[in-house]
Specification:
This protein is mostly helical. The protein has 2 helices and no strands.
Length: 87
């Protein structure tokens, strides 16, 4: 094998290695882009769920307040009947 053959094969091998490195880098970049987009989608979903949870808590607080007011009104009308139905 002559030195020219060795340099020719080395050049080809270097080109193949460089191409593989570029393909790997492109794949990793694409993968990180996909994961970033997925993370953003999950963050948006978490924010929406948090807002929903806060709305549910506010509604529950309002319902509990209204329920307490109704119990007070019923107690004013007929305390014995309300007490007999409470467990």
């Amino acid at each position: 094998m002559t030195p020219n053959d060795i340099f020719s094969y080395a050049g080809t091998a270097a080109s193949v290695v460089a191409a593989l490195v570029l393909v790997k880098a492109a794949w990793q970049t694409q993968t990180s882009k996909v994961w970033r987009e997925e993370a953003e989608a999950q963050r948006t979903r978490a924010d929406r769920l948090q807002a929903d949870m806060e709305e549910i808590k506010a509604r529950l607080t309002r319902i509990e307040t209204e329920n307490q007011r109704l119990v007070q009104l019923l107690m004013a009308l007929d305390p014995e009947r309300v007490t007999s139905h409470r467990i």
